[in-house]
Fold these 2 entries.
Entry 1:
Amino acid sequence: MSDSTRILEEMNDRSREVFRRVVEGYLDTGDPVGSRTLTRAMSEKVSAATIRNVMQDLELLGLLDSPHISAGRIPTQNGLRMFVDGLLEVSDPDITDRQKIDATLGDNSADVGGMLDRIGSALSGVTHGASLVLAPKHEAPIKHIEFVSLAQNRALVVLVFADGHVENRLFTPPPGQTPSSMREAANFLNAVIEGRTLSEFQSVIKKEIAARRQEIDTLARDLVENGLALWAGEDDSHDRLIVRGRANLLGTDEEEADLERIRTLFDDLERKRDIAEFLELAEDGDGVRIFIGSENKLFSLSGSSLVVSPYMNADRKIVGAVGVIGPKRLNYGRIVPIVDYTAQLVGKLISDRG
């Protein structure tokens, strides 16, 4: 049993209602909720003094906080976590929201990237947040690989897949590479990679390098290892993340500190950093996951929340993710079903396209 579950179970009905109404009021308005407001909203008649005592107890538990000299309270990050885990009521997505997402599917183009871009824009518009769509990697078996030297510090890797798809990726080779060492590296790779996908190749190549280190010279081995890091890390997913609606993260009344945190978020989004970790977060479990504030490893400096759900291909394998990022004061009850619906829709579309 988690600590938040235990605390919820130990609360009496009055404390639980006060806590829930403070969180819901804060999520609705962004303002601290005071005892006078709650006396008018509580299901039982209770004095403002009694409510203040309950609020103080909840503050001692680390669930509520007093942001200023105001008598009102707002939820802490721990409080929001407990509310999301134990009290959040989630219903089906609104029919109008579903229709706006569905409207992006009118074009039956085979361009998956364009389709995901339109879905991301619609998701951003519906949620008034920034949407994140992690497109699936190309998982067809590889037929051939080739390295092409372009300059002393620039090279091109050409990947030819068995289904005819071709990808060209620029990278910076290790110092000292020569055309002959690149050819030797390509020959080594082609001997072991054909018929395998990039995902399969990542583990296979490490074993092959360990078993055949004496068969390639040091420079070619460095090239292979450097290229492998690029494929498995940043460059592998650099073009896979689609970000839409960043302007929705800016309002008009933010304090300077809030604006600075949002600028940090923009920098993160612009550089598309840590995308591999984004997918790793989504792969930890099926269904929607919510990361609040510092729990959000991707954008922890922005004081934001991330609602993310993986989507699967026809083989029920997680191949990408969709999500919404915004302030901690998100309408979680509305955002969660929208993200879930969008992820299931994208999964179906990816599966239908094979």
Entry 2:
Amino acid sequence: MTYFPSFIPQSDPPLPPWETLPTMYDLPSDNPEEPGLPDDFHFLQPLLLYLTFQPINWNPELVYSAADLNLYYTIEHPLWYKRPDWFGVVGVQKLYKGQDLRLSYVTWQEPANPFVIVELLSPGTEEEDLGIKKSATDKPPSKWEVYEQILRIPYYVVFSRYTNELQAFQLVGGHYEPMNLTEGRILMPEIDLSLGLWQGSFRDVERLWLRWFTLAGELIPAPTEEAVAASQRAIIAEQEAAQAKQEAAQAKQKAEKLAERLRQLGVNPDEID
């Protein structure tokens, strides 16, 4: 008969869960059954969201966003993940633990869950993205179930490039409620931003794009747009300076002509108060 003592002294306290659970280095960051991105739009649209996600009331060093990155969401099934088209987080450093580019976003290793997730509708994923298709009991939960019930993402946005329809859902009382748009935009006062549609050219492609605005509706410029705007301001400033210089030269010329005319009339212009 084997004897098990009722108490076994431990020299060291148990390690916290985040030190014993798998990290992003232990978990796969790709899936051979899901190779690459499906089309150009699924590359360009998340890129525009990435470039313009600049929460005004947050330190830029504590703002993170990613596209097509594995999002691991439950420690009960550590190999289960979703792969959002784009998501944004606040309160998280750009680098994993301030040191490394992320291979995946592992929620139990991070200080915060995503604040907003965007899915771009495709014919094959529409039912799951919109919560119409439920997962089987023996299968991983659907995106909708993960975002709403497990990660409790405050804002979930769905955009269709085929119909240009924008739908948004806000977490209210533990479940998603459809949001009304304000002047065509989704307001997110917690980060002083709004998300809406914009007709314009991005990477030389003219179409209707989803992008970030201020709460008041002003565009958040992408770095290239900011550089172009700065160049245009410099050109305008140079033109204004040249015009001011020309006007000063014309005024000086008029003053010299007036002084010469006074001298011809016998009046010394230097003696006139």
